[in-house]
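Duplicate of #3305? Posting structure anyway:
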């Protein structure tokens, strides 16, 4: 059941990444809210949302789903397996992160958090000056979910990006 839900999650996120839509002013999405910068395109579907920068160079996805009692490590490991992720590691703030290949050979950085009732997964592919503000604005009326959302406080550091690029380069060498 959980594996089916995770597969559905990955497929939904892939559809969200591939989709484009008109600009939206909506900030509340299911159990969470986020400030959407002017000009960003928003696609909301099922488990989450995708935000696409006006220059189409940055995509951010955010999803919330029942964790069914699984911890963040287990969920992150299963998501990484489904999405061909590499470099799964714990973060200092209690989450798990990895990189995965994205659309058009873009590197996607994933971060996952979980409590006993829900997990939050977010990704960023590309860069944009407004990405930090999006992360900083994440919020929820649900107490447990709100605490997890507060952990999502920054975009990947330069060190994390360089490590991800190295991992993807090494994995492509192994594929040849």
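Output from current build:
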């Amino acid at each position: 059941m959980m594996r089916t839900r995770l597969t559905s999650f990955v497929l939904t996120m892939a559809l969200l990444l591939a989709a484009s839509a008109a600009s939206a002013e909506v900030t509340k999405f299911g159990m969470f809210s986020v400030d959407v910068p002017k000009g960003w395109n928003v696609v909301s579907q099922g488990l989450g949302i995708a935000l696409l920068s006006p220059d189409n160079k940055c995509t951010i996805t955010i999803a919330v789903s029942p964790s069914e009692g699984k911890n963040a490590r287990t969920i992150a490991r299963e998501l990484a397996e489904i999405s061909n992720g590499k470099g799964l590691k714990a973060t200092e703030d209690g989450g798990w992160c990895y990189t995965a290949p994205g659309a058009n050979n873009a590197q996607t950085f994933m971060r996952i958090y979980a409590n006993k009732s829900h997990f939050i997964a977010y990704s960023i592919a590309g860069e944009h000056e407004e990405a930090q503000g999006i992360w900083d604005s994440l919020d929820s009326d649900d107490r447990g979910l709100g605490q997890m959302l507060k952990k999502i406080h920054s975009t990947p550091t330069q060190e994390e990006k360089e490590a991800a690029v190295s991992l993807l380069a090494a994995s492509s060498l192994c594929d040849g």
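Confirmed duplicate; merging threads. Strands lie at 28-29, 32-33, 41-45, 48-52, 58-66, 86-90, 96-101, 107-114, 118-126. The helical segments are 2-18, 72-82, 131-137, 143-151, 158-175.
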